[in-house]
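Hi C.,

You asked whether I'd gotten around to modeling the 165-residue construct. I have! Everything is below, sequence then structure, no commentary in between.
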Amino acid sequence: MTAAEKEQKVYEILDSLGISYVRHEHPPVFTVEEAVQHWEGIAGAHCKNLFLRNKKGNRHYLLIIEHTKRADLRTLTQQLGEDRLSFASAERLMRYLGLEEGAVSPFGLINDSQKEVQVVIDKDIKDVERVNFHPNVNTATVGIGFSGFEKFLEYCGNPVRYLSL
């Protein structure tokens, strides 16, 4: 699937769910540090999305936190009752979410047909009006209302947990 097709699939699902969105195009970005310079004038929370695995590699997590927060994997490991968490490989990212490094996004959940990835969201994000994510490619940012984001997550059907991070 081409990058354009991956992105189009996101918009088709958002449209089918009646979720309005705003698309912002920008050069390819691979880190939050690179992305920040393109966020001027984009309303809402900008999120950091980390794809993690447990020690055995039999459980996978998509961690969603505001970009200004630091992910404390030791504390998260305890909160989830895991023995250890680490970043999942590029191969796992492609296998479970159909995404490439630099484009990690909850929109990748549309590719997780077996609902194997557990979504962990920082509770503070519940307090924002809008959230921004890559539309499965790193050349755009899409903003949606938080209620629309919850509707999208419900559509995907993956387990979702809100934790204080």
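If it helps when you're writing up: Strands lie at 21-25, 45-54, 60-66, 85-87, 117-122, 130-133, 140-145, 160-163.

Thanks,
B.
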